[in-house]
Specification:
The chain is mainly α. The protein has two domains: 30 residues; 162 residues, Ferritin, core subunit, four-helix bundle (Ferritin). The chain has six helices and two strands. A two-stranded antiparallel ribbon has the order 1-2.
């Protein structure tokens, strides 16, 4: 009797070494992609917080507060003073525009540092080594000076505005000069240098108006 053929059995799966199995390479690729995304996110998150020091933070927070008063005085002169001096009106408009733009830039920087956009401590200038009440910050007009400005009219109001704004800018230039020398963030230093240039030029023009009113 002839030999019967062997019964066919269910085919056994062929086991390949891992490097020969395409599915393993797909899984490895996915794992590497996930790992790469994680590393990229971490690096990006770290890069999103620029290097900075306490002077960078303090300068931006205090200068924002400082700018607010300059904007308020310039706006009042531009909109409420009777018979304003034309050149002072132009300077007031320039101050309104430049300092509001700078305030917006400072907010962006403070956000990128991950710190408060405002100084709500009631204290200021600690980053310059001589802490004081925030209302006593270098160059700020006192409440009595602001009241006198609001009560004045005509040339008297113009004289007070020019005097207060010169004082205000001198304080701002002093703060910005310290920031240039002691801040560590390049963008903050560049902004401070720009403020020094702009406000120093405005001081010269304000003094010309003040001299003409004497």
């Amino acid at each position: 009797m002839p030999d019967q053929p062997e019964t066919l059995t269910e085919a056994q799966p062929t086991v390949l070494p891992w490097w020969q199995n395409p599915l393993n390479f797909i899984a490895l690729g996915v794992a590497m992609l996930i790992f790469g995304v994680g590393i990229g996110y971490y690096a990006g998150h770290k890069a999103a917080t620029p290097a900075h020091n306490a002077v960078d933070e303090g300068f931006l927070q205090d200068m924002r507060y400082h700018h607010d008063q300059a904007v308020a005085m310039a706006y009042y002169y531009r909109t409420s003073v009777d018979d304003p001096v034309p050149l002072l009106t132009v300077l007031a408009e320039e101050i309104l525009l430049s300092q509001q733009l700078e305030s917006g830039r400072m907010v962006q920087m403070l956000r990128s540092f991950g710190v408060s956009e405002v100084n709500d401590s009631g204290r200021s200038m600690g980053w310059m080594g001589h802490e004081m009440a925030i209302e006593d910050m270098d160059g700020l007009a006192s409440q009595s000076e602001l009241d006198a400005f609001a009560a004045a009219s005509g040339d008297d109001a113009s004289r007070i505005f020019a005097t207060l704004m010169i004082q205000h800018h001198q304080g701002g230039v002093s703060m910005a000069t310290y920031a240039v020398d002691h801040a560590s963030n390049r963008a903050v230093i560049n902004l401070a240098q720009s403020m020094i240039k702009g406000q120093s030029g405005e001081i010269i023009e304000l003094q010309k108006v003040l001299d003409s009113l004497s």
